[in-house]
Write a structure and sequence with these properties.
The structure holds two protein chains of two kinds. By secondary structure, chain A is of the alpha/beta class. Chain A is 29% helix and 32% strand. Chain B is α/β, with parallel strands linked by helices. Classes of the chains: A alpha/beta, B alpha/beta. Chains A and B meet through helix 4, strand 6, strand 8, strand 9 and strand 13 of A and helix 3, helix 4, strand 7, strand 8 and strand 9 of B.
């Protein structure tokens, strides 16, 4: 079996290592495509120089994604048609899911999203994904191939052994428009997908009136801050800060969850964090079970002290 | 093409309520109606065994002008199957705009709309945060996509997905709820024969309890321990 892994606007080695690990569960041979928005890409060197050892060839497409939706789709379809992979594996970013859904629909093929487990049993490919607000996991038996899969970050290991793959770089200036006009009016400021330290702001922060301290903590740690869905719904932060199922999926070295209850929507976005530290006054909050370290305490007491400690340390 | 705004609304039988993201889709449809004066046509696909007459009343009270309930036999939880059924409805009504809630399909997590649009060969605008203009056969919308906010112009027919935070569901006054009880939905049946043409692409073969990655779950007893932890992993102020 062959698989094609597709990364949209993601260049981290960790992301391809996880997709390669999934492809190894399904197939013996993998090919990778990176589709990168030219504005976020200065050098394709690392992508071309290092790839997981089961990735035979790497294709890099540099383009303006919004202006070339059809061009990107056609590029992926050309490789699908020449390699004939049984599985086409995408990450779970919203941009990746956009292309995954368009690709699967145009091929009229199977698609299973947010996959958390992959196995082959009795010659059948079984893909597991959450259902019913994550209260149960459903096991889907793939009936026809190719199957388009989007995997949930942090649910799989990483394929650590690497080698230099064969690399092909292509640039598309413009192609047939998918939309009549596309104009980006504001760029994202939050760098949640690349940040090593992320402070997560939950409703508990808002309710305890410690929003400024939480933001200050993130600044002092040279980190980024993200938030849960209720804070976006309340208009406190923009959607670009939202972590969760239809928001950002993060992979920091440490995620510091402040006043975050641990709703399934949010938990699905933080599984890729290496370490989770939670501060919450509620010992029964579901996030505790998903934390490596937790401190039960009132944010009104904890945050000013943490900020004070770090401020003193930072002072010249 | 008909001058109508189609909205798909999912009834969740085990919660006995309408998916909240789909209530947002109705709110978005109302915003489009203000700009276009087109009627809102709501569609709900329900398992014949789960049919509840309150669904239509609730959808009418939210602002739909017409409600169509499609009763089907038990369906596989397969995106391809859902897309084929939805495709039949889209082709029957031929509205120029179709709107879905972001998480309207439990199995697809924001992928169903793109799949359907691509299968139908029509344009899809994901994560619409604002509808700016509707005129002639064009729509201009603001969308959160590709790492920022974008202004997108597209030609009809078009499928939009909208989020709850951009189009929050509004509470419905009792008077409107009572008026909605007087309206009748169109109820249609999908015959078992029409279902035989469907080839399931991914079959739900079983369920199991969630088992997330195991974490240490170690309690820290003082603020100093938090600081020590941050230092130990190299976090520097």
């Amino acid at each position: 079996m062959k698989s094609l892994v597709v990364l949209i606007n993601e260049t981290s080695l960790d992301a391809i290592k996880e997709l390669a690990a999934v492809s190894e569960l399904i197939s013996t041979e993998a090919y990778a495509i990176f589709c990168i928005d030219v504005k976020s890409m200065s050098d394709e060197g690392e992508i071309c120089n290092i790839a997981p050892s089961n990735v035979k060839e790497v294709y890099v497409l540099k383009t303006k994604l919004g202006k070339n939706v059809v061009g990107v789709l056609n590029f992926i379809k050309e490789l699908v048609s020449s390699f004939k992979p049984e599985a086409i594996i995408f990450s779970d970013s919203e941009d990746a899911k956009f292309f995954a859904s368009l690709l699967a629909g145009s091929l009229s093929t199977a698609i299973v999203t947010d996959v958390v487990d992959v196995r082959v049993a009795n010659g059948k490919l079984i893909l597991t994904k959450p259902l019913k607000e994550e209260s149960i996991w459903g096991e889907f038996e793939v009936q026809s191939f190719p199957v388009v899969i989007s995997i949930r970050s942090g649910s799989f290991g990483k394929k650590e052994d690497t080698r230099a793959p064969e690399c092909f770089v292509k640039e598309i200036e413009s192609s047939e428009g998918y939309w009549m006009e596309f104009e980006q009016t504001a760029s994202e400021k939050a760098k949640l997908q690349t940040s090593k330290i992320i402070v997560g702001i939950g409703d508990g922060v808002r309710l305890s009136g410690t929003l400024n301290e939480a933001l200050e903590l993130s600044r002092l740690l040279n980190g980024e801050f993200g938030c849960t869905r209720p804070l976006v719904e309340a208009g406190i932060f923009d959607r670009e800060r939202m972590i969760g199922l239809t928001g950002k999926k993060i992979r920091p070295k440490i995620y510091i969850a402040l006043g975050v209850s641990g709703a399934p929507f949010h938990l699905s976005g933080i599984q890729g964090a290496e370490l989770i530290l939670t501060v919450n006054k509620e010992p029964s909050a579901p996030i505790i079970k998903h934390s490596d370290f937790y401190y039960i305490g009132d944010l009104k007491e904890v945050l000013p002290k943490l900020v004070e400690f770090l401020s003193v340390k930072k002072a010249p | 093409m008909s001058k109508c705004i189609g909205v798909f609304v999912k009834y969740i039988p085990y919660l006995e309520m309408i998916n909240e993201d789909d209530l947002s889709a109705i709110e978005a449809a109302k915003a489009v109606k203000e700009l276009s004066n087109s009627p809102i046509r709501a569609f709900s696909i329900v398992n014949a065994n789960d049919f509840n007459p309150n669904i239509a009343r609730e959808i009418f009270s939210r602002g739909a002008d017409e409600v169509f309930i499609y009763r089907t036999p038990e369906l596989e939880q397969d995106i391809h199957t859902s897309a084929l059924i939805t495709k039949d409805i889209v082709e029957e009504h031929k509205c120029n705009i179709y709107i879905f809630g972001e998480m309207s399909s439990d199995t697809a997590f924001n992928c169903f709309h793109g799949y359907l649009a691509s299968m139908l060969g029509i344009t899809y605008i994901k994560n619409v945060t604002k509808v700016l203009e509707v005129s002639g056969d064009l729509i201009v919308a603001e969308s959160f996509i590709f790492g920022g906010t974008s202004r997108i112009k597209a030609k009809f027919p078009v499928i939009l997905s909208v989020s709850k935070e951009s189009f929050p569901p509004n509470p419905v006054p009792i008077k409107i709820k009572l008026e909605a009880r007087k309206k009748s939905p169109n109820i249609k049946e999908f015959s078992p024969e029409s279902m035989t043409k469907i080839n399931v692409k991914a079959r739900l073969a079983g369920v199991r309890q969630p088992s997330y990655r195991k974490r240490l779950q170690k309690e820290l007893s003082s603020l100093e321990e938090i600081i020590e932890l941050l230092k130990s992993i190299g976090v520097r102020a």
